[in-house]
Amino acid sequence: MDIKKVAIIGGGTAGWLAANHLGKALCNKDDISITLIESPDVPPIGVGEGTVPDIKKTLLSFGISETDFIRECDATFKQSIKFVNWMDKKEHGENNFFHHLFDVPLRNEANLLTSHWLSEKKDVCCYAEMLSSQHKICEEGLAPKSITTPEYQGDLAYAYHLNAAKFAKLLASNAKSKYFVKHLLANITGVNLSEDGSIFSLTTDSQGELEFDFYIDCSGFDSILINKALKVPFKDVSKTLLVNRALVVQVPTAADAEIPPYTVATAHQAGWIWDIALSSRRGVGLVYSSSHMSDEEAEEKLDNYLGESKQNLTYRTIPMKIGYREKFWHKNCVALGLAQGFLEPLEATSILLTDFSAEILAQRFPSSTAQLAQLEKRFNHSMVYAWDRVVDFIKLHYCISDRTDSEFWVDNKKSATIPMSLQEKLALWESYIPISDDFFSHFEVFFLENFLFVLYGMGFKTKLKNDRLPVCKTSLAMINQRKEITNHLQKMLPRHRDLLDKIKQFGLQSL
Q: Does the pTM exceed 0.90?
């Protein structure tokens, strides 16, 4: 049977990303319709406000103007994640930090510079500063591009911070106008299955019974289709990733306040705090393990962090079920977004995995039910691998920290909490600098450069065969060239807020 009617259950970022990916992939097929069904009564979670650089490629592929995106979504530029106090304060000082930057050198340059840094680090700058000019650009609060730079291009790599609710509206408008995605407001009151266990139809409160050929579950933590109807088991990874709750709040800021061009992730004794600056407010969230910190202690910790800016703000508590579905595609249903699972907000993995999964689905979308079994197997194999590798990367931040000031940090270093795949890599990297061959799959999601910034930003000890290698002339030339580039960028790049103000007033040059 041909697949001609596709339903997406749930709006928000996940649903409308899926609608655009599928709409773009299927727009030349006149006999296929896409309908997004959204509950009028369920508000979005609305805390996924950080992205990674791949989002630029996605927005460009949808034909969305970067100027419109920045204006309509209160977007700001994100060039890094600044990790504060993730290391021992006694050893590295109060407010110690490192950057996970987005702008990186070529891989052969990274290997040479890493070797140089490991052998000479007592005498040179911090790791990220050696690898990229972006370290100083971030620390000085500069933008990654100028007003004359065309849309989606930059002098340095970047992603965005954004208002998630406004982002979903922009995606919805684009999907409906460009790809003719239908939009229905209704609550799903029942899911009707066929004899073979696939989904036959949906029962709704306002639209009656609706029948489709293929279903995409973007219904968030509720997982109406993949969980409640199809009963696909959940793989719990809370014994690896220990945080399971978040207190979130939106903090108003002054119209002329400085906007850091990076996410701030500040560690505390039972987790960490994100701080994301948009043009008129900050999104702040305290992430913690309820096994290591009480709700009352968490509120007090967030009070102290906000200080005078707390005023009369009310916190919202979000419980986090840490893990993912054992299968993401079952029969004629695929789960995306929070319906797939959730690991925690570190490194903006939620939007990243949603965009990643939706694009893969769109590239190999079934045209008939005869293809379902083959594509299901392929999709599940790829996505389980991707999720497992993201677990490894998130865990890396915790298990290599030298903090021992609380049970939380001690527990994170216990081998029982560290996946064997990560243990094997760390054992290898004690003797060898990571190389691209250590990340051999397209479905890794996080690659060599991401690991390098975290590993050596946190002082991971790779024991080179010779403690002090001969100074490489090529490395010194790279370092000197980096300094020249940094000086040039410092002179030419505008303040972050100044660029955003100009974009709102004049716009960027269209491609």
A: yes
